[in-house]
Amino acid sequence: MKIDHHGDTPPYEQVRVHYAHAISNRELPVGAKLPTVRALAKDLGLAVNTVARAYRELEEAGLVETRGRAGTVVSANGDNNRERIRAAAAQYASMSAELGLTPHEALDIVRAALSRF
Predict the structure, then answer these.
(1) Intra-chain end-to-end CA distance of the chain, in Å
(2) Is residue 59 a contact partner of residue 78, using CB atoms and an 8 Å limit?
(3) How far apart are CA 63 and CA 80, in angstroms?
(4) pLDDT: is 100 or 79 the higher one?
(5) How many domains does the chain have?
(6) Would you say residue 19 lies in a domain?
(7) Is the CB of residue 33 less than 8 Å from the CB of residue 71?
(8) Does the global pTM surpass 0.90?
(9) Are 16 and 44 part of one and the same domain?
(10) Which residue from 15, 34, 38, 112 puts its CA 20 to 30 A from 55's CA?
C-alpha cells in the first residue's frame, strides 16, 4: 500500500479504502489478521492516530473486528454486508423496471449516486 501524502484524499481514508477493497474483493479472507496499528503506521510513515481512525471506521462498517490482544481481524460481517448490497441492488432493479426506467437510465442514476462518495 502506498500513501499519497500530497493528494486530496486524507491518509486515513486511503488506508480505509485500501482495506475495504481488499476485504470486499476477498483478497483478505474472513479471519485474516491486519497489521497492528503501530506497525502499519510505522511502515506507512503515518501517525498512529491516523491508522487507528481508519481501523475504527472499518470496524464501524462491520468489515473488521478488534479482539483485544489478538488484534484486528477481517469480520464475517463483510460477507453479510455484501449480501445486503446484493439484496438492495435486486430491489432497486425491480423498482426501476416497475417504474419504466431503461437499464441505461437506472445505471446512470446509480453512477450519479456513487459519484458522491
Answers:
(1) 21
(2) no
(3) 10
(4) 100
(5) 2
(6) yes
(7) yes
(8) no
(9) yes
(10) 112
Whose CA is closest to 92, among 117, 60, 114, 76?
114
Is residue 1, in this structure, part of any structural domain at all?
Answer: no
Residues 87 and 67 in one domain: no
For residue 6, tell me if it sits in a domain: no
The burial class, CB within 10 Å (0-12 / 13-18 / 19+), for 59 is middle
Cell numbers linked to 10: 486524507
**Residue 25 resides in a domain:** yes
DSSP 74-92: E-THHHHHHHHHHHHHHHH
Q: Hey, what's the cell of 103?
A: 437499464
Residues 55-96: tens digit of each pLDDT:
999 999 889 999 888 899 999 876 666 777 888 999 999 999
Query: What is the structure's pLDDT at 13?
Result: 96
The answer to whether residues 71 and 86 belong to one domain is no
Domain around 103 = 79-115
pLDDT of residue 67: 87
Which residue has cell 469480520? Answer: 75
